[in-house]
Amino acid sequence: MSHRWQKGYGAFSISEAEAGRVVTYIKNQEAHHRVIRYEDEYEDLLDRYDVEYDERYVWD
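^ that's the sequence the OP posted. Answer follows.
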């Protein structure tokens, strides 16, 4: 697997109450993405929060 930075960016905010959960997610991210592809998780997140996007521009 090659690692590289994407050309675009995304920004999300969380509540202070969710901060601990997010830190845990980040710490376990490598193992988590062995089970769930990052691309699938990201698109699910966009869909869950009704973020409009054009798939032609989401992935390089």
